[in-house]
Amino acid sequence: MWTFFCLFTVIAWATTELFGKIGSNENEKDKLSHWRITSTVGFAMGALALVYIFVLKTDVSLSNIISYLPISMFYIVSMIFGYVGLRYIMLSISSPVSNASCGVTSILCVIFLKEVLTPIQIIAVVAIVVGIIALGYTFVDKEAQKNSDKKYTRSLFALMFPLLYCILDGIGSYLDALYLNDCIMTENEVTVCYFLTFFVVGLLAWIYIWIREKKPYNIFSKKWFCFQSIGEAVGQITYVFALSEAPAIAAPLVATYSVVSVLLSRIFLKEKLSALQYVIIAIVMVAMFILSFE
Fold it and tell me: pTM of this prediction?
């Protein structure tokens, strides 16, 4: 069954990025779109937390939520930056850059935990870092050639969001590893803490939109954001099940969902990259797979 859960997670999260991008394109001039996504996903995560608590009988306490809060916020803030970036940058670029966070985690483990990487892991980390830099350069250079200096600045601004996602998510994963090694909480309890924290952030985002627009925001009014929230939530469920059955294989397989995102963006969003950009993305993806598997 773990194979099915892995494949389902890959499809769910890849289509989630696609839905988010379509919705953001339709609301490109809406400066609150990232808060709309955050509120919609937050309510979905809250519903999912109820499933864990009442169906899976997962215990959770306020002290556990507070204890895990810093890690939850690294993940959530990284996702919010990702949601902002959906308005400005192609999914074909943002997805591989964002999901190269495993490289950040590995670097932090080497620096602070004194872990020793194998030669192939070192090559993978270097390939990810160099690949992201090269991919960013090709994206910014392409925009600069096509547009004015203002657009050039905009492209640098756009690239900042997936990079922030990459860094913050990588830090969150590093802290998560430390926490789970030292904590008596189960993975399900940690997951519920994360979901409930996301729900609170989503609720605050919903209130913020209400204040700004002076009317309650209907979370069901943006269908693509609703589809995105469902994919985020359901994908998280199947991801946990996959990890529980085959963690060594499930993690690297699920990490390849960015490949599917790039393909979907090419098919449905008609995004076009240069041959060099596709080569760089392929190298980064292979390096991510190697690093996750190792």
Answer: 0.88
